[in-house]
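ok, trying the design again with the full structure, not the truncated one.
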């Protein structure tokens, strides 16, 4: 099981190490909090908060607040409509704000002795730029996340250590001139170790490699992320 998991992870990180040798390097820290609440069998609330630092952990660069309303199609499928507010705080100059409307679909299934989820998200982005200019763009994102328990249980995975592997690809599908002038936007590859305290709480820490395609230069951000997941 561990060998199969490593066989997936290692090629991904060799690929991004090769890309990073050709681009500018950054190091930052991200904190991620995800909360889901089910009101009943069909409806629920999504809410996540992220805080990201500047390069070399030099102060807060951005904060993301992302609420959404979720409809549960089946036990393993759901769709969410949401809004995002994110101010970006430059180290010099005025704060720039982005608003987004987003729609997503998630499907989950078993993989190995753990669980694999796939997320498809469409974003309508209203981006503030310097000089009070506002531009509009749309972006499509595909994300998968695999949770692999490191200790088996008879009643499913309800408590104990786990490994997490995820990757997300971003594509600019409308008004590329308002972003980076490219269809490809970025890729985020992530590996982490975590602990499930109960069915309601997970905590994890890991490394994320963010490769971002720029209009004139590319960037690889080496991110240390700490994350909390709650479910009610």
């Amino acid at each position: 099981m561990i060998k199969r998991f490593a066989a997936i992870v290692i090629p991904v990180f060799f690929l991004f190490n090769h890309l990073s040798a050709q681009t500018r390097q950054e190091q930052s820290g991200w904190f991620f909090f995800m909360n889901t609440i089910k009101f009943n069998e069909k409806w629920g609330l999504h809410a996540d908060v992220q805080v990201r630092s500047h390069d070399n952990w030099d102060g807060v660069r951005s904060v993301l607040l992302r609420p959404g309303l979720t409809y549960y199609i089946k036990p393993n499928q759901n769709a969410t409509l949401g809004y995002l507010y994110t101010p970006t705080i430059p180290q010099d100059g005025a704060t720039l704000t982005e608003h987004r409307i987003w729609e997503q679909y998630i499907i989950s299934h078993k993989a190995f002795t753990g669980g694999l989820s796939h997320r498809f998200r469409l974003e309508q982005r209203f981006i503030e730029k310097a000089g009070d200019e506002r531009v509009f763009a749309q972006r499509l994102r595909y994300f998968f996340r695999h949770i692999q328990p490191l200790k088996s249980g008879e009643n499913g995975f309800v408590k104990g250590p786990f490994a997490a592997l995820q990757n997300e690809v971003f594509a600019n599908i409308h008004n590329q001139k308002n972003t980076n002038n490219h269809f490809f936007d970025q890729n985020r590859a992530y590996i982490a170790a975590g602990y499930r305290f109960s069915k309601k709480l997970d905590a994890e820490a890991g490394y994320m490699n963010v490769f971002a395609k720029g209009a004139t230069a590319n960037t690889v951000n080496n991110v240390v992320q700490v994350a909390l997941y709650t479910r009610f």
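Keeping the full-length input from now on. The mean pLDDT is 91.
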